[in-house]
């Protein structure tokens, strides 16, 4: 591992109030968002992922990579098995809805818990919960007893686990690396996720055709247990742990008001809502294209998801080398993502479709990573868990509505029209917001 480079700027130039200010939610006046971090010069290529020089984060990133590969294996196997058991793309969308609905309904409370309790302990509990769900799915699939309603029920339980896991995981990155490498660590996590999305679907496609999807669930169960063990091995003396925020009335209302009055949180929040509702349930549409349009089966479905991940991985690496965070990057990434999906809607051949969804993956990661970085670095640490839970509620919870919506559109109006709607709405919304921001340069 290379030695750290000269000090990078703080993840946020926003003045940091004392943590005591957060114990009385009705009183504090949080300072406005300051200019976001700008690197003086582009990092050498060998320092592209410099946050990995932190031992705790290096261990976390390695375990996270294994977990993400296994998670994607489970996700692909789950969606394909539901499609085969039910013969309905809508049923796949319902599975997505059940898994994400708890985040939509309970997400802010997950952030409240993340601000008040140990993030490491919360992540351990969530990992063990996810392992139990995966083991249950694997047992049912391997014994031939799996039915669609089993998948629905376990997807709902996994959604409840996600309510606590997502905000705790987002904020825990800061405890691992501190503010100095926060932006870079977010990009590393995105790269990890996309590498997993590159490998996981391909492995899942092979398993589905060779030995059945049940083994994908078994692999994920072991990977989740590995995550729980890794968290117990971290060096606690090297964690940058902030004192828990004391309980007080109005903490969620305070977080909403705080987030809404900061343009660098508000507008990524708005665009995340539009993109998650219409374009983040892309696997539902890819299942329809694999089965009904190109007739390439389970292995082809894995290939399509892998092509998205190829583009997304490139976008994640580019994000790690970006000098400055700007709203135009967030809005532009969302708009281009939508435009690429709309262009792919009527692609006449599988190779062209694969190329377009790969470019869409690049644009999607440009949007997601820059939005995540902007929201995190714009929020004071004492309220960051609640702010990130609101962002996650919109980003993930929107898929609870978008999954069945796109599934129904694909089933009743055709995959082509569903893909067109999926891309056109975010593209139009991003164009409108870009015009609005151009007329209001203060934001």
UniProtKB/TrEMBL annotation:
Domain Major facilitator superfamily (MFS) profile: from-to ranges: 51-441
GO molecular function terms noted in the UniProt entry: transmembrane transporter activity
Keywords: Cell membrane, Membrane, Transmembrane, Transmembrane helix, Transport
Entry-linked InterPro entries: MFS_dom, MFS_trans_sf, TM_effector
Subcellular location: Cell membrane
SUPFAM superfamilies tied to this protein: MFS general substrate transporter (SSF103473)
Record-linked Pfam families: MFS_3
Ranges that cross the membrane: 59-77, 89-110, 122-141, 147-164, 185-208, 214-234, 269-290, 296-318, 325-344, 350-369, 390-410, 416-437
Residue spans of biased composition, Low complexity class: 1-21
GO CC annotation terms, alphabetical: plasma membrane
Membrane topology: Multi-pass membrane protein
CDD domains referenced in this protein's UniProt entry, alphabetically: MFS_MefA_like
Record region (Disordered): 1-24
PANTHER family in the cross-refs: INTEGRAL MEMBRANE EFFLUX PROTEIN-RELATED, STAPHYLOFERRIN A TRANSPORTER
Protein's UniProt name: MFS transporter
Organism, scientific name: Sinomonas atrocyanea
Lineage summary: Bacteria, Bacillati, Actinomycetota, Actinomycetes, Micrococcales
